[in-house]
């Protein structure tokens, strides 16, 4: 099979299958075997915008860990005002793949550093934690990690209460106190922050290192939680779609190579077609195949190009942003140790476009599933809605 554009009919089929798994994920009898987990978030309705005060916010889920100080105050014109100070900390490989204690000790160390820098170590601030992994919540401030994704592997975390792990690490340090009040997925955080600007935002989507979406679902159909009235935000965890074979006829040999050499083979198959953790690697595997068939680089790949992970996803964005003189493409390929002809540059660009276009189409099919479901549940012919979107691929890719 080769990389040709997915047809509208095929994308509609993906959408239909996604809608079916979403439905199965919400129902008590089918939840267990569904690939799309549809996790209740205990975020009942979007905020009023009347919450005021100082908060600490943590963001863990990509390659960096971020600590923020957020000041929410009254503002006469808009009704509220948010000011932030923030600091990024890169997560060392051994913290990502060691033990949960090591990871959470590192997080506590970063918070401690941040509090020192801003001279607020004496204050016990309310803390909100954006934790971008599948969590089965019992409440807004309590939930167990179902499984790691996106290259995280810290042992002893899966099956445990994430807020508990954080509180324990803070206690172990003993040099500051925090009041952990909420833990949300990044899709939920994105939806909520977009809602401050636009009251019709009821969907959040991330296309970054990983890919996922959340949306406001009617309470009566969230069978895992009691109550009939109003709406609750559901974290779809659609990245796991495909675990029941739903994507088999769409997955190509390159997808299989990328999956088999990943940290979590067989898992997050939909995410692996779309997100930044895998996009560059997919392109690399496609290029190697072309080299093997003597269609690229005179049939010779550099050692670097043969190395897993060497083709970073940001290269895909940069190559597709090339103005037409191929300079950018040439430079990137040179850093990868190959000296390309003009034709090579054009082929590489085409490979990037094929992979990213398919990613966008697949992601669009998922989003259509979410919004069509909302429209049907609300018995509307046309649903006008805003989707809050964030993530490195969304922000950096030119199209
Ligand atoms: C995680 C989701 C997250 C998404 C985007 C996925 O790998 O399972 O919880 O929302 O990445 O960060």
UniProtKB/TrEMBL annotation:
<comment type="similarity">
    <text>Belongs to the hexokinase family.</text>
</comment>
<dbReference type="GO" id="GO:0008865">
    <property type="term" value="F:fructokinase activity"/>
</dbReference>
<dbReference type="GO" id="GO:0019158">
    <property type="term" value="F:mannokinase activity"/>
</dbReference>
<dbReference type="GO" id="GO:0006006">
    <property type="term" value="P:glucose metabolic process"/>
</dbReference>
<dbReference type="GO" id="GO:0005634">
    <property type="term" value="C:nucleus"/>
</dbReference>
<dbReference type="GO" id="GO:0006096">
    <property type="term" value="P:glycolytic process"/>
</dbReference>
<dbReference type="GO" id="GO:0005829">
    <property type="term" value="C:cytosol"/>
</dbReference>
<keyword id="KW-0067">ATP-binding</keyword>
<dbReference type="InterPro" id="IPR022673">
    <property type="entry name" value="Hexokinase_C"/>
</dbReference>
<keyword id="KW-0324">Glycolysis</keyword>
<protein>
    <recommendedName>
        <fullName>Phosphotransferase</fullName>
        <ecNumber>2.7.1.-</ecNumber>
    </recommendedName>
</protein>
<dbReference type="GO" id="GO:0005536">
    <property type="term" value="F:D-glucose binding"/>
</dbReference>
<dbReference type="GO" id="GO:0005524">
    <property type="term" value="F:ATP binding"/>
</dbReference>
<dbReference type="Pfam" id="PF00349">
    <property type="entry name" value="Hexokinase_1"/>
</dbReference>
<feature type="domain" description="Hexokinase N-terminal">
    <location>
        <begin position="5"/>
        <end position="196"/>
    </location>
</feature>
<dbReference type="GO" id="GO:0032024">
    <property type="term" value="P:positive regulation of insulin secretion"/>
</dbReference>
<dbReference type="Pfam" id="PF03727">
    <property type="entry name" value="Hexokinase_2"/>
</dbReference>
<feature type="domain" description="Hexokinase C-terminal">
    <location>
        <begin position="203"/>
        <end position="398"/>
    </location>
</feature>
<dbReference type="GO" id="GO:0005739">
    <property type="term" value="C:mitochondrion"/>
</dbReference>
<keyword id="KW-0418">Kinase</keyword>
<dbReference type="InterPro" id="IPR022672">
    <property type="entry name" value="Hexokinase_N"/>
</dbReference>
<comment type="pathway">
    <text>Carbohydrate metabolism; hexose metabolism.</text>
</comment>
<dbReference type="InterPro" id="IPR043129">
    <property type="entry name" value="ATPase_NBD"/>
</dbReference>
<dbReference type="InterPro" id="IPR001312">
    <property type="entry name" value="Hexokinase"/>
</dbReference>
<keyword id="KW-0547">Nucleotide-binding</keyword>
<keyword id="KW-0808">Transferase</keyword>
<dbReference type="InterPro" id="IPR019807">
    <property type="entry name" value="Hexokinase_BS"/>
</dbReference>
<dbReference type="GO" id="GO:0001678">
    <property type="term" value="P:intracellular glucose homeostasis"/>
</dbReference>
<dbReference type="GO" id="GO:0004340">
    <property type="term" value="F:glucokinase activity"/>
</dbReference>
<comment type="pathway">
    <text>Carbohydrate degradation; glycolysis; D-glyceraldehyde 3-phosphate and glycerone phosphate from D-glucose: step 1/4.</text>
</comment>
